[in-house]
Write a structure and sequence with these properties.
heterodimer; A: alpha/beta; 8-stranded mixed beta sheet; 13 helices; globular; B: 440 residues; alpha/beta; Rossmann fold
């Protein structure tokens, strides 16, 4: 309980009230020159990533030619529905795609100047443990039920930071206090089942942060949690990523979370990035019918009641040998012949950070 | 019920319009342990609920996991035996009904479950799943039954030729439609919808939600709609009840309640819901509750929320919150809250300052167009409805430089056609639009 303000917050069952001003400033990624290697201006650069799954039914192009980058300290959202390839993208970055049946068949992933796909298994293990932290959806299955919380957090600290066991324990207590677990020292010997869902997710965050990673991959980190607990966890991730200057790749199906947490957002559909932009651009001026559809079909708190929701009809396509056509075309209200003849590229829409994969909203399209 | 809720579809008026009346409903579960399974405690899952559901009304029930909302839903149709209290369905006390009488009553009340995978028997065809309740209640047989199953499939938006397929051949959304068809098979008056869209993807959620809304209107159904998502509940409900630890803490029409909640818990819940709008997200004043929901085995004394209550802290921890369990008090019209300091809660701006009701959403095609093409947006006045604005994009370009190919049919499918069609005809409008395009 080193940090006094954390300790104080643990005691009183009150609130963290965030005033509108500092509730969420748009954090322009501040770059600390000391922490980055020469020549790399981005923490993560993914170029032309294709991860395919070789199944008895055929080759599923789960992720197909995906490119994006992530700055130091930046929070990037990967948004989409089940099966759109957002989780596989994250797993590919960490090289955790189950093989077989999955395989990264093309592309380049450069993390902090290192070509990830060229690392051997040992080097990769170090990178995963030290530089990249993970927060998964289900904290119960990602923690080992037979080991104490204290041991599980200390494990990677001892492994990757070379601390003595006493120093590691101190570090664990410090981390647990940071993530808001009360009476941290008393709980070191507790097992995962003795924690509630929200508390387990805090433990996961403590493990993710244990070695001061440069990047956190958060895959639906709050989907299994209740809304008030979700708010706690999101606030925690945001506060800690600011404090430690950690970049976050936030994978979520919830557009509300993306709107509140991210600096930039990639919308994924059927293994492709359908649209990308700064959070303000994307939610204010989306330029892709799928993004419109997503925003349109959500019931919202600020809805005028009684209005019918506009839906996206149909289902996402099966990604075995998809035709050379816009993958959203079968469900698109605005589709024309051109969409069926050739798949559009991801092209810029004015703003240099905003791009969409859509014939209709290109300058020569029918919704320019 | 009053002038404050003009949009409520429920039949207004006296108690006679109530289809379901619940009085002091309690459902307790024993906690057992040890080799002799001795009872060591009681989970008070539902602890004294009193409310009514009016005929034709949709009552939304929200709360976090473990608050007792699903147990309430099941107790209402006696899938769970209430420990205490009465549940009257159309004046008949369900708790006292004998098994045979109850079985007959079940025809009038049905349930749709959350899990579209677990709630359908994988070894039964869609036809037999849907016809099972018809057989149970001897409603039809032979060709009439077959016809009825086909009709039901059509009603829920599935192709009647799917009748001999198995559940695994369907997507989650389609399975949920099968669940709806099964519930409708016995022509019930009342359906408990227990998180019916929580397991579905965003774009599919809207489809099922629209289906449930349509069916309610076509068939005059009454729903208890259980969900954890406040936005969804607001969308479909005439009134919303918020539960916390086995009790209703607030109840009222969503427009009024969401704009000005009278219970600190409701405010906290609302402030925690992410809104897909970065500008609003930055503006809002959040309350982040500390800690977890206490155990229902040993709920806090007095007001059950006081251990996590921000208002309790703000008011200097008043004693009555710790000692007296507040009943639901009517604040105005249909709006009631169970808080000693509901008046203070009403005056707070916590949690809701971001909710501005807007007829046109940000980020939708209409709003996007307005931002990108102000010259087109100029043609639409602010007061015009979404449909009209939508038509400008959905239909052929109106007076734009884009004349390629669509010009011919563009004039024949003018804005007025789509605009006069109601929102309900949206699907039709979109198919018309795309077929126009294909012909060019």
């Amino acid at each position: 309980m080193e940090t006094s303000d954390d300790a104080a917050m643990d005691e009183a069952p009150t609130i963290i009230e965030v005033s509108p001003d500092d509730a969420r400033r748009v954090h322009v990624p501040v770059e600390t020159p000391t922490s980055r290697p020469r020549g790399a201006e981005k923490l993560l650069k993914v170029t032309g990533l294709s991860t395919h799954f070789f199944t008895p039914d055929g080759v599923v192009q789960a992720v197909d030619d995906v490119s994006f980058d992530l700055g130091y300290g930046e929070t990037l959202g990967l948004v989409g529905e089940s099966g759109c390839g957002k989780s596989v993208t994250a797993l590919s970055i960490a090289r955790l795609v189950p093989d077989p049946p999955g395989k990264i068949i093309a592309g380049e992933i450069v993390f902090d100047g290192i070509d990830v796909l060229k690392l051997n298994d040992d080097e990769m293990r170090v990178l995963r443990g030290k530089e990249i932290g993970f927060i998964f959806q289900d904290p119960l299955t990602s923690l080992n039920p037979t080991l104490t919380i204290g041991y599980q957090i200390a494990e990677s600290i001892r492994e990757h930071m070379g601390l003595s066991s006493n120093a590691a324990t101190d570090r664990v207590v410090e981390l647990l206090a940071k993530v808001g677990i009360p009476r941290a020292r008393d709980r070191l010997k507790d097992y995962p089942h003795q924690f509630s869902g929200g508390m387990r997710q805090r433990v996961m965050i403590a493990i993710a942060l244990s070695c001061d990673p440069k990047l956190i991959l958060a895959d639906e980190p709050t989907t299994a949690l209740d809304v008030t607990i979700q708010a706690q966890i999101l606030e925690l991730i945001q506060r800690l990523s600011d404090e430690f200057h950690t970049a976050v790749l936030m994978i979520t199906h919830d557009l509300g979370i993306a709107a509140g947490m991210c600096d930039r957002v990639n919308v994924m559909y059927a293994g492709r990035i359908a649209e990308t932009g700064t959070v303000d651009e994307l939610f204010e001026r989306p330029r892709m019918p799928y993004s419109w559809g997503l925003l349109d079909s959500l019931p919202r708190l600020d809805d005028v009641r009684g209005e019918r929701l506009r839906t996206i009809e149909g289902l996402p396509p099966i990604l075995i040998e998809p035709p050379d056509a816009c993958r959203f075309e079968p469900r698109c209200r605005f589709a024309r012949d051109r969409c069926r003849e050739k798949e559009p590229e991801l092209t810029l829409r004015g703003d240099t950070l905003h791009a969409a994969r859509c014939w209709a909203t290109q300058p020569d399209g029918w919704i320019p | 019920m009053t002038a404050t809720m003009p949009e409520t579809g429920a039949a207004p008026g006296s108690g006679e319009s109530d289809l379901i009346e619940v009085e002091d409903l309690k459902v307790y579960f024993p906690v057992r342990a040890g080799i002799f399974q001795g009872q060591i405690g009681t989970v008070k899952a539902v602890d004294g609920l009193t409310f009514e559901i009016r005929r034709g009304e949709t009552l939304g029930l929200v709360g976090e996991s473990g608050c007792g909302k699903s147990t309430t839903g099941r107790a209402l149709i006696r899938l769970r035996e209430p420990t205490e209290g009465t549940v009257r369905f159309d004046g008949i006390d369900l708790v006292k009904l004998k098994p045979e009488a109850l079985r007959k009553m079940r025809r009038r009340m049905q349930i749709i479950f959350q899990d579209p995978y677990g709630s359908l028997d994988p070894r039964m065809t869609v036809g037999s799943i849907i016809s099972e309740p018809i057989d149970t209640h001897h409603l039809a047989s032979g060709a009439a039954k077959k016809q009825r199953v086909a009709d039901l499939l059509r009603i829920v938006g599935l192709d009647p030729t799917y009748i001999s397929r198995y559940p695994h051949e369907f997507s989650g959304g389609q399975r949920q439609r099968i669940g709806v068809a099964r519930a409708l098979a016995v022509e019930p008056e009342f359906i408990v919808c227990d998180e019916p869209i929580s397991a579905l993807d965003v774009s599919i959620q809207a489809q099922v939600l629209n289906l449930l809304t349509d069916l309610r209107e076509q068939l005059g159904l009454t729903y208890l709609f259980i969900a954890h998502d406040l936005s969804v509940v607001k969308h479909i409900s005439d009134r919303v009840a918020v539960m916390y630890l086995g009790k209703i803490v607030e109840i009222g029409p969503p427009d009024i309640m969401y704009a000005n909640p009278g219970h600190p818990y409701t405010r906290a819940l609302l402030s925690a819901v992410p809104v897909p709008d970065p500008v609003l997200e930055r503006k809002r004043k959040r309350v982040i509750l500390k800690g977890d929901v206490p155990s229902p085995v040993n709920p806090p004394e007095g007001c059950r929320f006081h251990t996590r209550c921000w208002l309790y802290e703000q008011l200097g921890q008043p004693e009555q919150c710790r000692t007296i369990d507040p009943p639901v008090r009517i604040l105005q019209g249909d709006h009631g809250a169970a808080c000693h300091f509901a008046e203070q809660a009403l005056q707070s701006d916590v949690g809701v300052s971001h909710i501005e009701m807007t007829p046109v959403r940000r980020g939708t095609p209409e709003a996007a167009l307005r931002a990108i093409r102000p010259e087109l947006a100029g043609a639409m006045s602010e007061s015009q409805t979404v449909d009209v604005a939508e038509t400008v994009i959905g239909g052929p370009p109106v007076g734009s430089e884009d004349g390629d190919g669509t010009g011919g049919d563009g004039t024949s499918a003018p804005a007025t056609g789509d605009a006069s069609a109601s929102t309900a005809a949206d699907d039709e409008a979109s198919t018309t639009g795309s077929s126009d395009d294909r012909t060019t």
